[in-house]
């Protein structure tokens, strides 16, 4: 697709667009180069002065613009019917040959120039709603137009005779409201006066004589009647047959010509169904003298039509997004969407759907993929239905199975036959084009490996090949368990919006998700305030409101959220450089007591990397004790941690356990830790708050989580006897008894056994505890 046209760059017209027929007046523009074709048809009708009527069909598939063509022909006739000398240049070959045929078959008495202004009538069979009365309604509409010709006695007489003739074809009751079309007749009755009151006697007349009288009146009228008939392809088969019969019944009347819009495939199929015609096409040929297909729409015109409608509706903000995504949008348009769009109606329906969905998820899904998916929904509904029912057959991820086995490619290949069945009913050319579009949208469907990126890469580029982006596109909005791309961007790169974003995310319990997306989608080197961002992450860790949502910090962050925050912080800080000292990036951070938990975790990661032979986690025990004084950053952290432990604020720290472990790895820390912890141990409130630091081992199993507090470890924290006595006294407190985790920790200390958290009464012997 090209860029935004200059004449539409700031236009923002309301949608949805309609596909109503273009009127051909005012500022209307011929966007598919069909005006010349319609002018030639109109010229043919104007120049036809013979009493013999003609029938012309304008044929095309549903939505191809037949109604607009009829409107253009009628507009031409309305403007030029007074000027019969007006002729169009460059006539089509078939129309030129037909004109020559008409000249050879004209009667000896052509119409006088002053009498040949045609009477234009429209008939929409869709409004009748009853196949049994189609012929009568059709004639009543023609009579209505005749009856409205001012100061023309012959027109009035023709209207009377036409109504009478229609009544003779099938007994009718001219009672207002008796049938859907009688309101049409009522206007004719008012204009034609007393003559119509005698219609009730006409059933006694011979149909042939009445028809001859009608013909004579129409000949004497001296004006051609041109009837436009539309929407035949919207009728059920029985009504299609009846409207064709109605045309046949009137077509041999003098002065009556027809311009009929129809879909030949549907019309012939309907005639075959309703009347069991073996050759319905030949039946139409007997009634219609000139069958014309609409000129084929040039793909370039269709593309321009699409672009103009799109630019008319999008906002300036959407225009900016288009500029950012033009490459992908152009790729999907040229290779996938453009070949599948066949008619102007396809364009309108796709644009309406796209413009409805884009404001809801356009920032989450790239425009090209969103457009491709909406094209499938409109043009290939069965394929779209299959994507809705089984998205994993295209992305490689089963949305309903969190423990899917096998690779994404294996999962996609598993449904190859199912996808082939869906595509089997399509014509060969359409099937090939559809397969190409699907492969562009879902690269795992390709037989070669090009562009087969991983889920994270697809998601980062907002491609629907990513499971999370496809979910958004299919739900037309952000799912309840998803975070918007805009919020992720603001969280990382907009300091002013950061706090509001994180509060909204936490309220929806989506903290883990926004951290995942930040790691996947954002170039963290572009974070404008890197140290401030890490500080902000540290305050999230320490936030009491977050901690209060569960039973303690570790049950919320353990091995998941805290690791993501640490990783996010490490990536952001990595771009600052370390000047040869990894610890230098933590300067100023380790001295901030408000983020002590995160700063300690970051410090622990660096210290763990420094220790050779440590193959376990950052909390593994080591016999090598580091002097805090050997590094300014380490000394800075030590002083901050000691000051916090000396105050009641330590009880409010989110992850006290990691702080104690790092203190125990430092020479100065091992010496001071018993004295630092004793005031907290002697306080009922504070010992409960720091109880997690007494856990030397915590494991998960099929039976649940267990905690163990080894004597050797308790000795490092203080006097085991004092700690055990305090734990035993706390077990009688009702507040402790209401907390299963506290009960398990205190029982493990007192009984020197491994205790299940879920059922603290269930004890497991473990000889190592008493060692």
Task: Summarize the structure in words.
The strands form two sheets. The protein has a five-stranded parallel β-sheet, with helices on both faces. It has a four-stranded antiparallel β-sheet with strand order 6-7-8-9, with helices on one face. It has 771 residues and is mostly helical. Strand 8 (754-756) and strand 9 form a beta hairpin. Helices cover 55% and strands 5% of the residues. The longest helix has 18 residues, at 344-361. The chain has 38 helices and nine strands. Among the domains are: 37-118 and 227-296, Rossmann fold (3-Layer(aba) Sandwich), CATH 3.40.50; 130-223, no CATH class; 299-475, no CATH class; 695-771, no CATH class. Helix 13 (326-340) runs antiparallel to helix 20 (428-441) and helix 26 (530-542) packs antiparallel against helix 29 (561-574). The radius of gyration is 42 Å and the shape is elongated.
